Amino acid sequence: MDSTDRTDDRLLDRHAEALALFTDRVHAVRADQWDAPTPCAEWSVRDLVNHVTVEQLWVPPLVGEGRTIADVGDAFDGDVLGDHPAVTWDRAASAAKAAFNEPGALERTVELSYGDSPVTAYCAQMVADAVVHAWDLSRGIGADETLPDELVDFVRREVSPYAADLVKSGLFAAPVEPPAGADAQTKLLCMLGRHP
């Protein structure tokens, strides 16, 4: 994050906008699209929505309750979406948003898989995750792939410092060379191994 995004209110605004964007796409999934492929090589639409939902489910215990990864254990392993994926997403997103918005939450430290992290950094990562996966989901279901400019700028600033390390994680494809004259969204997606 750069200094313009470091105020708590601005970060929480970006988080709320990212959740709203992903929510819009989840509610656009037709009943016959849950098994459709996405740009995430091994994930169907359902797998993708499940992944982002699980990410939200981790927030209340880690941020709101101060629990550790070991405390939570395998509670969120597997498919958490059940028979009503959009409803499950809505509840998870609402609970995550509430946890980040608790008084003092952004001043805390949280334990993540790679060690302790300021909650502000965790929240910024969650914004990036929701925004990029909103594009993946849009492509998977044939919805509008346009991402809001403010969120594109936020994610670019957030991810740029560690973009080169993402490929090493095994969760991201290698960066793609953007075409000449590419807009900010295309450059961001190419940096993250997408083919816009």
User: How many strands, what sense, and barrel or not for the largest sheet?
Assistant: 2 strands, antiparallel
Helix content: 40-55%
Ends: how far apart?
24 Å
What is the third-level CATH name, the topology? Answer: Four Helix Bundle (Hemerythrin (Met), subunit A)
- The Rg value, from CA coordinates, equals 16 Å
Beta-strand share of residues: under 5%
Quick check: average pLDDT? 92
Number of helices: 8
* Low-confidence region ranges: 1-5
Secondary-structure class: mainly alpha
Overall 3D form: globular
CATH architecture: Up-down Bundle
- The domain tally reads 1
The strand line-up of the biggest sheet is 1-2
Describe the structure.
The chain is mainly alpha-helical and 196 residues long. The protein has a single domain, classed as Four Helix Bundle (Hemerythrin (Met), subunit A) (Up-down Bundle), CATH 1.20.120.450. It has helices spanning 8-26, 45-64, 69-72, 85-101, 119-141, 149-159, 163-166, 184-191; strands at residues 109-112, 115-118. A two-stranded antiparallel sheet has the order 1-2. β1 (109-112) and β2 form a beta hairpin. α1 packs antiparallel against α4 (85-101), α1 packs parallel to α5 and α5 crosses α6. The radius of gyration is 16 Å and the shape is globular. Mean pLDDT is 92; it is low at 1-5.
SSE blueprint:
Layout: H1 8-26, H2 45-64, H3 69-72, H4 85-101, E1 109-112, E2 115-118, H5 119-141, H6 149-159, H7 163-166, H8 184-191
Antiparallel strand pairs: 1-2
Helix pairs in contact: 1-4, 1-5, 2-4, 2-5, 5-6
